[in-house]
Amino acid sequence: MLKNKWIEQGFIDEPADKDLDLKTEIRRLCKEKDAIILAHYYTVGDIQEVADFVGDSLALARKAAETDAKMMVMCGVHFMAETCKLLSPEKTVLCPDLNAGCSLADSCKAEDLKKFKDEHPGYQVISYVNTTAAVKALTDVVVTSGNAKKVVDQLPQDGKFIFGPDYNLGNYINEVTGREMLLWNGGCHVHERFSVTKIMELKQQYPHAVVMAHLECKGPVLAIADVKGSTATMLTYAQNSSEKQFIVATEAGILHEMQRTCPDKEFIPVPPEISESGLECSCNECQYMKMNTLLKVYNTLKYEWPQVEVDATVAKEAVKPIERMLELS
Asked: Is pTM, for the whole model, over 0.90?
C-alpha cells in the first residue's frame, strides 16, 4: 500500500539501495512489465539515455499512439502524460512526478477558454499541444511547433480562428501564413527569458555560429535567428549542416541529444536574460522537466504509480483534435 505521504506529494521518494544500478533496474522492470519509457528532449541526459524513445511533443504523441506495450512512462510534463492516455486509454500511463506541470499550459485554463469562445461565436479553436486535456476538449484541432504551419495552411482561408495559448508561436504562424487569428496571451517561462541582447553577446564570441531559436521565443529573438523551428527541426538541421558551431535558444536539455548525435560540433546554450533566482546562469532550464529523475522512474515502475487518468467525458472530446492533428500532419 502506498504511503499517504507519497500520494500527497505526487511522487514516490523511497530511496534505492546505494549499490543499485538504476538504469539496469529500470530496463529490467520495463521488460518484466512490458513497459516503455518516453522522454522529452528537455529531460536530463540520464533519463534520455535510459528511454526507449526520445523526441519532441509530436513524436512522443505518435509513439504513444503506436506502441503495443501495456504500460508507458512519460518522462516530460503532466500534459504529455495526459496526451498519452488520450491516445492509449486502455494502457497504463505513468508519470514519475505529478507536480511536473507546464507554465504554458497553466496560462490557459479551460474555464477561461470557454468564456473566450462564448464571447467569439463562430470561431474555431487551434490549441498548441502544451495544454491540459480539459482545454483540448474545447479545441477543434491541436498543433505542435513542428506542424503548426502545415496544419493551419490546410484550414479554410476564410475561417475564423482562436490560437492559443502560446502568443509567440501564434504570432509567428500569423506572419508566415498571412492569417489574422485571435491570439491567446500565454507563454513559456523558459522561452520568454531569451533575449536579443544575450544572443548578440554570444554572436560576438562566436561570429560564425548558426543561431537557432524555438518558435516559442519572442518575435525579436526569432527575427535574428538563422534557424527557427521546433526542437526536432533544430536537431535535424544541426545533424545535416556542415557548420560546426550553433547558438541554441531553447531549453538546454536538447543539447544532450545534439551533442550525442553530432560529437564533432559545438553547441552553445543561450542563457536567460534574468534567471528565476535573479542570478545569471549559463543555460536556460525548465524546472518541471528536471523533476524527472532516475530514482522517480525506477519507483514509478516498481509501484506502477503515479498513474495518469483522464475523465471519460473529457477524454471523449479531447482526443478528437489530437486525432485531427495526426491526420493533417
From this structure: yes
